[in-house]
Amino acid sequence: MNKIFLTLLLTASVFLSAFIFIPRETQAAEMSVTQLIELLISIDVIAPEKAEAARQVAASLDIPIISQNPLPYLQVLKPNGGESMEMDLDIPYAFSWGASLAVPVNIALVPTKGVVCNLTPTPVLSRRPSDSMNVLLRTARCYDQVKNTSTPLVHGTYKMRVTYAGPKLATSTVIKDESDSAFTIKPTPVPAITVTYPNGGEKITRNDYYDIKYTVTDTTDEEPIYLSLINADGYVIKNAHKFGKNGVFELRIDSTIDEGLYKIRLKTMADDKTEIEDYSDTYFWISRQTL
I need a surface site. Which of 103, 128, 173, 182 has the fewest CB within 10 A? Predict the structure, then answer.
């Protein structure tokens, strides 16, 4: 058997001189006779006359051929439509596809509008019967394989496309597959805090407690919220702070506070330690007595 294998390996070096991509799982030192013959048969894609010679060698040695498909078959497996992905997660997403032969392919995201995004700077050699690529969306880039440039991947609605990217075939058919329907890559959330009450035009009285209401997104409870009561001249009249972001900040309007126009300012820190703040949209009125 070792003599047969050596003969086939030498034959392969001749047959594959024009086109050879050794699959990652079948490096030459580890290839079985059957794997080698199967690889020879894959030359059908480029040179049918050489593949026929390989078949004759296999037949003379009574070796079964696993695959005799003259053209590679590709199929998108995941994402295949309807998925929703978060742009800002530190966990990569798996993009997977099926392939009948070990051939070079391009993996791309096709937007509903805009330019196709190739996920790698050059084609990748696909394993068979399936392969996958892990993509960290927040750092992913779109590559122009002709100009050797790249741009960041942006959020949007896409389909995944896998396309044969080897040497020219004997057929004009473009061998590719796309997701059955579109999937969504959501944008990175923007950290924000927003005052919702009092937000302008309200009338409240001194010597009472009020629930200052707000919304907050993409922040943690580890950072406190700082509240300031600011008069129409821009002076801070009262400060307070709290932990926990339940949307309500209880504040007492003391009897010593002057009647007049005021705004609420809220501040906190986003997850990336940048400061975010918001004010009441317009002034509200603080009165000395019940209105």
Answer: 173
